[in-house]
Structure to design on (684 residues):
């Protein structure tokens, strides 16, 4: 049993905290809040211990938030801290808190790779996190890329990959985000480099387009193989066997997939899975070309849970992934989506 | 000297009519209007003869539009009609008017390929249009694809092409267009097929994403070569020599390119050229990956002019393309954009 706290209770933190709270091998010490906003009260109503900076306790209490103690107390009482702070804040927390206190930490993909001893994707390199003090779960699209690429690597020789991301314009709770007026692009985006931080030196280029839409990230990949490329049936077979990829045949807009998640009454509409848009698959001489949809807000949740387990060595890769999947309902989500979009 | 009329005076028609009006080897008979809206008055103020359906003449005149005669008169007095009607209307016009009257016509890419004897891109297959009664100028993105692919075909063996289009949400003067709420995709879009209608049987797949943005179409292409792929310098050299491609190094949003066209005081902000985003070029083992921006409203204007010239055999390919380029200011536009984004 590992004592785990979640430092930062935003889009990722709140989801990871709930999953930890239900996990029989992990004990949620509590979550931290730095501003007394609605999320602090949501954490209270979820029954979580809410820890706040020592000198903000009175302020939080005056706003009606039940405070369990200081952030410092929380981290002292934890074996591992899931750092779900804003991008770039994780490295500061590492230096000022986790290292001095000798605590383990799980960082998010908004941090640079060198914040941690290893960049992590459960399907790709679970074992590499074992015994490491600092583990970084790669970002949402990189997580999806790893889930798509790793099974291919196990069966084929990849020559190189070109990846295109059509980013949603903003995070869910953001009031502002992308330009309304234009498409912005980031040539040679971090994603290729981040995939390499997990999967090793795969030749890969990625470009990210930021566009004013609000339903999921949409990605396309053009993959060239060294010899022996998969057929369409091979690809569908391969991905159908992956627990965290749903193979959808008939979806034609991102809104349809999100609407299905509402109709399925999934908590927060979270699907956790990559949706492969199987009708986009094209097979070329020696290559494949396909697109997939990424639920940015939830895809890294199972990865964070597995990262904690991998780090502490509580379970094997296979056991942990299966346990995490069942914990948050992934098998049912996958089969439901595949049925709806059969 | 060919007598040319423009049937339909919308986004494409108004631009093509102006270019014909300035062309020393073509005589603009006039343009047609079917509704007495603002465009009819713009055509009047441009000094164009405005032809309308016979039974609408009084209606147009009562709205203050100067009417030169009936659409039937206009077509009777023309050697060639540029059909710039709404998508799918061209085939009706062909059957009900152009064929019975034995007139030549130039159709737009919104029509199916079989509307015409040949699908046309000046750079790619100018000579194929010579003497053909019906010529179809391919659509804006297909035109860009042909401009990008043809120079490669002349120098390299292409194995296959994967193309991705991030469509703007609506035409310029449209009040409604794409979903605001989602990304819509069209797997295996018409573009690959349309490129093949011009360039022959190149293995190619395309996907189109429709996204709520409003500044240019943005495209990415992943191209695999059979042997001997270009380097980044090769690509930049090759495209720099193309009169209708501008090679931009530093643009990072579509709005920047459109803003430059305003600052350059280009009529209607029209650039006519494909903007290659050179900083997106990635070279893989045997392949290239790059992105480019397409000014949907103007890119087919020079192609329509060249199509008329090619059809009637007034000039050679080289002479016509050069003449058209000078006519609408392309050499200056290309060099200005390349300087601004050097």
């Amino acid at each position: 049993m590992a004592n785990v706290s979640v430092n930062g209770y935003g889009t990722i933190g709140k989801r990871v905290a709930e999953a930890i709270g239900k996990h029989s091998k992990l004990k949620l010490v509590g979550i931290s809040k730095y501003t007394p906003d609605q999320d602090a009260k949501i954490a209270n109503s979820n029954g979580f211990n809410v820890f706040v900076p020592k000198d903000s306790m009175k302020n939080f209490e005056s706003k009606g938030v039940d405070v369990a103690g200081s952030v410092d107390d929380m981290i002292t009482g934890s074996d591992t801290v899931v750092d779900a702070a804003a991008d770039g804040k994780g490295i500061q927390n590492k230096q000022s808190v986790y290292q001095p206190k000798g605590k383990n930490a799980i960082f998010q993909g908004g941090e640079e790779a060198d914040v941690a001893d290893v960049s992590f994707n459960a399907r790709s390199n679970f074992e590499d996190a074992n015994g490491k003090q600092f583990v970084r779960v790669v970002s949402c699209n990189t997580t999806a890329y790893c889930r798509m690429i790793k099974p291919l690597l196990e069966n084929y020789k990849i020559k190189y990959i070109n990846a295109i991301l059509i980013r949603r314009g903003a995070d869910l709770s953001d009031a502002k985000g992308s330009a309304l007026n234009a498409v912005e692009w980031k040539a040679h985006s971090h994603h290729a480099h981040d995939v390499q931080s997990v999967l090793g030196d795969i030749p890969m280029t990625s470009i990210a387009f930021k566009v004013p839409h609000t339903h999921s990230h949409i990605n396309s990949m053009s993959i060239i193989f060294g010899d022996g490329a998969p057929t369409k049936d091979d690809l569908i077979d391969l991905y159908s066997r992956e627990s965290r990829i749903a193979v959808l045949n008939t979806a034609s807009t991102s809104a349809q997939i999100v609407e299905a998640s509402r109709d399925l009454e999934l908590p927060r509409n979270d699907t956790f899975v990559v949706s492969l848009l199987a009708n986009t698959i094209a097979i070329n001489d020696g290559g494949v070309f396909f697109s997939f949809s990424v639920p940015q807000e939830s895809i890294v949740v199972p990865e964070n849970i597995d990262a904690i387990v991998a780090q502490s060595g509580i379970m094997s890769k296979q056991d942990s992934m299966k346990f995490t999947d069942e914990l948050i309902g992934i098998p049912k989500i996958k089969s439901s989506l595949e049925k709806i979009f059969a």
